Amino acid sequence: MQSVAVKPKASSTDTENPAVVDKPAATSQNSSHFASLRAIRKWKHVVTIVLFVIWGTIILFLHGLAAQRAKHYEVVGCRAVTRPWFSNGKEPCSSLVYDCHARNTTSPDDSSFDKLDVVALATLAIAHCPELDMPRDFQRLENLMMLHLYNSTIVKWDAESSVSDTAHTRMLSVLVGKTQMTEFPEGLLQPLPASLLSVQFSETNLTKLPDDLYMRWHAMAMIAFENGDLTEIPYQMFFSPVYTLSFAGNKIETLPTLAMMPPGMTIPELNLKNNPLRELPAALMAPDPFVMSINAQNTSLSAMP
């Protein structure tokens, strides 16, 4: 007789619950995964700190070199020495006063700016020069933003050393104060930089202005000829595309040229204060005002038109 092995029936519990995963093995895998993540994060943190330390060391090193170089700069008249990290061998000065009296010269020449880093120079004042001959080297100062001539006598300022629209693309302002000249400087009659916002003359010996300034100069915020010897203003001057036009402190008694203005012309601000002004044209405010604002303080006017 042959015996037959009988396979036991699967219980309902066995069919409803599949094979159970080995819990200790799964827990071990998760722990290993989290440990790897922690290690990666830790190394990233360490690498970040190391990079910051290296970067900070480089910055301190470059700053130290710049400070060390600055001790040896001898730029006479420099009002603001910069400390660039990388040097081109020139002396970095952002604001320079060229004082002829202090340098025992009569004018700067073509070698006066040779030692300067022309990229760094932003403002230049030329003062106390009895025979100012503007050097052609002036056109190398490509980043110049302000030019100030003070207490000098201009003997030559021609087109080769002019304020130029190609050489001085960042120029914002030109000031000429307490300065004598035999004629209007040719160096300011060339095409001016588009960035230029103002041209101001104060306490000069100019007695007349060029008739064609309005064609030579582009639109600006301010044009001023103040505290001088002007007795009349060419009517073309009022064509200038400018917001503020100032002739304060001159010797102007009448302005008949204002009556010659064509219809449609507008002057936003006209400053005539501190002049011996006796009258203004009756047509100034009729039929439509073309001077939006006029300053006539400290004049001899008894009534406005």
Automatic annotation (TrEMBL):
Signal peptide: none annotated. It comes from the Eukaryota. The keyword Lipoprotein does not apply. InterPro entries: LRR_dom_sf. Keywords: Membrane, Transmembrane, Transmembrane helix. Residues 1-25 are annotated as: Disordered. The chain crosses the membrane at residues 46-66. This is Leucine-rich repeat-containing N-terminal plant-type domain-containing protein. It comes from Phytophthora nicotianae P10297.
